[in-house]
Design brief:
Rossmann fold, 10 helices, 367 residues
């Protein structure tokens, strides 16, 4: 641009930018949000405003800083408890005592690592969710079908996790699988319309590691070389999704690409690539479009779910990684009696079948 200043009119709003200070500025907006993406050579900044131009949130180059290290390495939570979101039951499953559900494979996945599980119920009060956030050591957003209730509950835990870290440097890990991966992207982007249809249902494939994986927490130095080789060369990631985030769309989005690292991509059934693994640059937030729990705990016949030795080692690595992150969080319930009110043990999983259902065992809850 030839001028030192430019005016950008957004209907009744005029923003004046001193272009000498910035190497690039990008603005997007809708009826409720205004996003400024600024690159001033020294740092990258994303500023989010409401339609009255009141600043709601700023992300800047601090996102690239590493999380604080625990000064006392002997401090470790040896009794981690991880929450898993339940979901409204599909109509075909509903009975008077079956309004919400949780796939048992997610519970086994976590319990195999030495952690306990709390099912996070739907249709509860904000006080209920806040109590669990302050008592649990991390949360899983599982796969399934998106509903308003699932999205709303996930949003609470997501926003509280960011707020606690930004304000008091408190870590609360979040893991998203399949739908949970997609919801993480939606929450970060404040939009549910960012994915596109794709063909990746009942399909196992390999991962292509991106440069950002090399120094990532999830797939960097902590990943054993034999597991990395297997992930890159064998079809051992189980996919059951019909929507995708395309790498080109992820990279072109200033919010997503600043907030997250794209760690891996995968091909769908049409050989088009999709983003398959992400992690936050700043927070302990991780997402996989695929299902690591399936390899060890789901046994539907006539499916593409892999059960090789290498695929089960992938399951074990991913689950252990997540639980080890939650060991950095020192939350606990107020008492043993309080804890027992929420743990999964008061529920009994039901066997479904081995030839039709995605889940061989399901926990049903009544709300």
């Amino acid at each position: 641009m030839k001028y030192n200043q430019t005016k950008l009119s957004l209907e009744n709003l005029i923003i004046v930018l001193d272009l000498d200070k910035f190497s690039s500025v990008r603005i997007t907006y809708n009826e409720t949000k205004i996003l400024l993406f600024i690159n001033d050579k020294q740092k990258i900044s994303i500023q989010i405003y409401d339609n009255q131009f009141k600043n709601e949130k700023t992300f800047d180059s601090l996102i690239n800083k590493q999380l604080p290290k625990n000064k006392d390495l002997t401090i470790e939570n040896t009794r981690p408890i991880i929450g898993i979101l339940t979901q409204p039951a599909p109509i075909l499953w509903m009975k008077p005592n079956r309004t919400t559900y949780l796939g048992a494979s997610y519970v086994k996945y976590i319990e195999a690592t030495g952690a306990q599980v709390v099912p996070i119920r739907m249709y509860q009060t904000t006080d209920y969710y806040l109590h669990l956030f302050n008592s649990l050591n991390g949360v899983i957003f599982p796969g399934g079908d998106i509903t308003d209730e699932y999205y709303s509950v996930a949003k609470l835990f997501y926003m509280w996790s960011l707020k606690d870290f930004d304000e008091i440097q408190k870590i609360f890990p979040i893991w998203g699988t399949c739908l949970g991966f997609e919801v993480l992207l939606m929450l970060t982007r404040s939009s549910t319309g960012i994915l596109e249809p794709c063909q990746a249902d009942d399909y196992a494939t390999e991962l292509t590691f991106m440069p950002n994986a090399n120094d990532s927490r999830l797939l960097g130095p902590s990943l054993p070389s034999n597991i990395k080789y297997a992930l890159e060369n064998e079809p051992i990631t189980s996919n059951y999704h019909q929507f995708c985030m395309r790498p080109e769309n992820f990279s072109a989005d200033p919010i997503l690409s600043t907030f997250y690292k794209m760690l891996t991509i995968s091909p769908d059934l049409e050989r088009r690539t999709f983003v398959s693994t992400i992690e936050s640059r700043r927070y302990l937030i991780f997402g996989v479009q695929w299902h690591p729990e399936n390899n060890a705990f789901e046994w539907r016949v006539n499916s593409t779910i892999p059960h090789t030795k290498d695929s089960v080692e992938v399951t074990q690595y991913m689950a252990n990684f997540l639980t080890n992150q939650t060991r950095q969080n020192m939350n606990h319930f107020d008492s043993l009696e309080d804890e027992l009110k929420y743990l999964i043990y008061q529920y009994t999983p039901e066997f479904i079948d081995l030839d039709k259902s995605h889940f061989q065992q399901i926990y049903y809850l009544y709300e």
